[in-house]
Amino acid sequence: MTSPVKNQVYTAEILGYSSEGLGIARIHGQVVFVHDAIRGEVCDILIMKVGKSAAFGKVVAWHTVSPHRREPDCPYYRRCGGCAYRHMDYAEELWAKGQRVQDALTRLGGSHVQVEEILGASQPLHYRNKSQYPVSPDGKVGFYRARTHCVTDLTACLIQKPQADAAAGALRTYLAEYRVPGYDEQTGTGLVRHLYVRTNASGQSLLCVVVNGEALPHEDALVSALRRAVPDAVGVVLGVNTRRDNVILGDRYRTLWGRDTLTDTLCGHTFRLSIPSFYQVNRDQAQVLYRRAVDYAGLTGTELVLDLYCGAGTITLTMADRAKKVIGAEIVPAAVENARENAAANGIENAEFFCGDAGDIASKLAAEKLHPDVICVDPPRKGLAPEVIDAMARMGPQRIVYVSCDPATLGRDVKLLAQKGYRLTRATAVDLFPGTAHVETVVLLSKGEVDSKKIRVEFSLEDMDMSEFQDGATYTQIKDYVLEHSGLKVSNLYISQIKRKCGIGVGKNYNLPKSEDSRQPQCPPEKEKAIREAFKYFGII
Questions:
Q1: Which residues contact 311 (CB under 8 A, 6 or more apart)?
Q2: Which of 16, 101, 191, 232 is the most buried (most CB within 10 A)?
Q3: Closest by alpha carbon to 14, among 2, 34, 5, 30?
């Protein structure tokens, strides 16, 4: 068997996608990663590079074109490394991401659990509430090309907020006008490293300029330029990072104007966020993700929950509503301070937060014989350290809810947790990053296995409303959604009435009474509208 030869053209079918969104073909038995290719297409592929285990190629002609192919809607698409799927429709992108999660859990995790249908975004454009623009030595402000640190200068991005692009434009002009050098990674010289922008749901922004030093020339001029470009900015912060590494943020900040925090709402709670605080970049989809995490946690109000890698307390406080007590742990001091402030601001008294490394805190709590009912983890891309897994197992929770931004490390950790007696039982992929190759996943791992031979449960189907399980969302989820998005409280009765209007079956308990003389309160029009919106959101109608 011979490998494909560089600069030769071969005809092959695209079989699937890599973790970076590249098409995958097999030529002479070797995997070939193909740029700009879609599953099912038959293409002429020019081999650009041949490695030991894989080759790389590009399409030079199509014999069969996928119906999912579309013209990229971004002029920077093939020059910027931010997006991977702008040459296909969103349905195919979701398939690729869902399959990636399934493959990771099966091949790396050794699990046979079927991943539930991926939850796509209703707004796949301009969704990022956090933007990080690298600055080149010659003053370009944009994003890196794929697999490089070469900055592509751009004026607008389809996934960033317009406020962020406007701030980037103002910084670009400032650099040119005052001849301020950008940072050179090779030499460690230059001054401006990154522009960092947070934007909340109401359009307010917090801006941070990260520098290789203690100050900037003409700081007042920069502040004025940024405020003109972003009228709804609440603050401008200078971040100091003099390290010779690729970490974006430093560990010191100085407020140049306004506030150094931004407030946003998520899952019915208000959160104050500092620059270094972790916060999901897609607020709307984060709410979908966290609702699923709470659902997996199976909280009844009696549980002790431990949330490792808690950031500003977003998941912690979301779970606090349904738990007896929640404990959060986070290594970033500013984020822990934010988490404590957020608990107080939301009137949550059953939450406690610790600052420190997740492994150290987990080991300490395990040594103190803490036995949480549920442990929730949302680690960085590298996943869980072995000492964290060991400590979690020693604490012996009944359930582990794992939120992951990398399917590969998730699969690895699922296998390691299985060795500790925790079996993967449920998994859902959630697309927080439309257009890009990234995908979020939440899984449930349960302690031990249920021996069905030892359990006997008797019930009547007539006593249950099975539509809760059939129609994509529980009554509680629908009520929570309506309350959060409209401020209205709705009853199970009202939800069942609107289900019947929509032709959706409901359980016996929620049907109209047999007596024609019986009278029930009817759902008001404004609540009916809100319930129908919830149905659309959960895909019920």
A1: 277, 278, 279, 330, 332, 335, 339, 378
A2: 101
A3: 34
| Distance (Å, whole) CA 82 – CA 437 | 9
Phi, psi torsion values for 219, nearest 5 degrees: -60, -40
Amino acid residing at 149: H
259-280 pLDDT, tens digit each: 999 999 999 999 999 999 989 9
Q: Are 381 and 409 in contact (CB under 8 A)?
A: yes
Can you spell out the DSSP letters for 303-355? -EEEEES-TTTHHHHHHHTTSSEEEEEES-HHHHHHHHHHHHHTT--SEEEEE
Q: What is the dihedral of CA 484, 342, 232, 126, to 10 degrees?
A: -60
Closest CA to 36 of 4, 8, 68: 68
Tell me whether residue 208 is one of the annotated catalytic residues: no
Residue type, 379: P
Of 159-173, 189-203, 237-251, 420-434, minimum mean pLDDT range: 237-251
Map out the domains of the chain with their CATH numbers. 1-67 (2.40.50.140), 116-120+282-454 (3.40.50.150), 130-266 (2.40.50.1070), 461-537 (no CATH)
Backbone angles phi, psi at 462, to 5 degrees: -70, -20
For residues 317 and 343, the answer to whether their CB atoms sit within 8 Å is yes
The token pair at 197 is 């922008």
Largest CA distance in the chain: 85
Q: Which of 296, 308, 322 is nearest to 365 (CA)?
A: 308
Q: Name the active-site residue from 43, 80, 267, 405.
A: 405
289 by Cβ neighbours in 10 Å (0-12 / 13-18 / 19+) ranks as: buried
pLDDT in tens, 71-125: 999 999 988 989 999 999 999 999 999 999 999 999 999 999 999 999 999 999 9
3-state SS class at 422 = strand
Q: Which residues contact 489 (CB under 8 A, 6 or more apart)?
A: 479, 482, 483
Tokens of 121: 């975004």
Place of tokens 């960092």: 196
Whether the Cβ atoms of residue 207 and residue 233 lie closer than 8 Å to each other: yes
Rounded to whole angstroms, the Cα distance separating 361 from 246 reads: 27
Asked if 411 contacts 425 with a C-beta cutoff of 8 angstroms, the reply is no
User: Amino acid identity of 122?
Assistant: S
Is pTM, for the whole model, over 0.85?
A: no
Q: Which residues on neighbouring strands pair with residue 269, listed in sequence order? A: 266
Phi and psi at residue 364, in whole multiples of 5°? -65, -45
Buried b / exposed e over 212-230, threshold 16 CB at 10 Å, is: beeebeeeeebbebbbebb
